[in-house]
Amino acid sequence: MVEQAEVRVVHQGGSKITFREPVISSDSRFLLCASGHNVKVFSTATEECVQELRGHTDLVTGVLLRPSNHLQVYSCSADGTVRLWDFTDGILMKTYVIGYPICSIYASASHDGVVFIVMPAQRDKRSDVFQLVAVHLPQCADQLVETTDVSAVLGDVSSNPVAVAFGRSGEYLASAKGLQLEIYFFKKQKSYRFFLKEDHKNGGRNTFTCVACHPKDDCVATGHEDGKIRLWRNFNHKKEYTYSTLHWHHSAVSSLCFTPEGTNLLSGGVESVLVQWRYGQESQRDFLPRLGAAITNIAVSPDGALFCTSHSDNKITIIQSCVKVSSIIQGLVKGKFRLYVSTANSDHKQ
């Protein structure tokens, strides 16, 4: 008779570290990324995991530096909460209960005490309908806080975090979905919509894949399925808008990111090449090739000292601003194995 024992899971490990865009701390010393139900904090110098922020009860869907305190981060989750952490000490400071699964989170310095989240449209049961809302975070001493001050900003947005970006320190936001680009101005409380045809004459696919906003100029960069990048200007006057087109990628652009001063635009896709475009002189480009796997996300540190790229093989590459690889953080990957079953009479391979 075999005695039955209770199986207890002590630690959950091996989750993807490239599910969402990573975050680099203001001093470029730490890299934070969503990993399953947790947030992992890595040293950019040693590649060591120095903290693991635990508290969410479902998948973490976003990590964001708090604009007013460079030592704190917000995380959001499918568990319907936004959590505020002191990431250097690994301390959970606040839990804000939203009550709906959260797809992504954004913030800006000009919206103090407010975070913006993408969540399912409350009155629509279809899983493919999402809205962007402003959540006003209550200022109180309680560690667990119910949030009731929520206001809708945009309806029918993409659930993909790279499809929404804030421009000019939060004066406006850009949202791309399908063949539509929508730009919303907070002071005017007015949005402009721009549409593209599904295909153009040369057979290219115009569908939007990602968006980024220049930190100082009124310029919105959009990536597309056919590998093109469009730079939109004059969009605060719908009839006068213009765009210019950049093209190097042969397939969909998966991520775009401007550097903090706006001097360069970074792009990546399935080619495993980070492309650095000189803003205003886009014919001048730098390339970092052979990064090993498709680029899924790009992030830049607030001081501009480091870039990082997430890859489809669960790897994050940390890159110096001179476009030179500094270090690599590798998550677990699936490996091939063979199972050998031994019987009393013979050995049998499977």
TrEMBL record:
Transmembrane segments annotated in the record for this chain: none
Taxonomy, superkingdom: Eukaryota
InterPro entries: WD40/YVTN_repeat-like_dom_sf, WD40_repeat_CS, WD40_repeat_dom_sf, WD40_rpt, WDR75
Keywords in alphabetical order: Nucleus, Repeat, Ribosome biogenesis, rRNA processing, Transcription, WD repeat
Principal cellular location given in the protein's record: nucleus
Localization annotation: Nucleus, Nucleolus
Pfam families, sorted: Beta-prop_WDR75_1st
WD repeat copies, ranges: 53-95, 201-232, 246-277
Record's protein name: WD repeat-containing protein 75
Primary gene name: WDR75_2
